[in-house]
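Annotated sample (chain length 144).
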Amino acid sequence: MEEKKESGVCTHHGKNVGFWRTFNKWTQLQLGEMVGLSQNTISDLEQQKEINENTLHKLSTALGVHINSLKECDHQATLDTCRHIVNYINNNYIQPGSIVTNLINTDKNNINNPLDKVSELYERIAELSVENALLKEEIKKTKG
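Output written by the structure step:
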């Protein structure tokens, strides 16, 4: 049973860690290496409703999110916000001849290019949307 408030905010620390880890396309092993924990420990943490403050701080730093995002997170609202940001950027800045497009074309080998991250996030959001639709279909078939 997923711990949620009426608003859709998940208060299960472990589920929120798992959400942000998969959002970053990281395995449990990769996250564990970043914070000095084993894959098994990360797996155990993702099952815990509450994680101690010190461990949450280490995880939030590695995941690049505020510690409160590991305590309470509306997963769907987060994905929707990312989708809106990507759409806004695509509709307003990614056009032939724009400064951003020129930067992309001249800076393709720069691994720190923030537009690469936006592109990765957009792809992940698209994948999650497909997965979500498939899960909803399975639930419908199971119920009826």
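Annotation: Residues 75-143 form one domain.
Annotation: The two ends are 21 Å apart (CA to CA).
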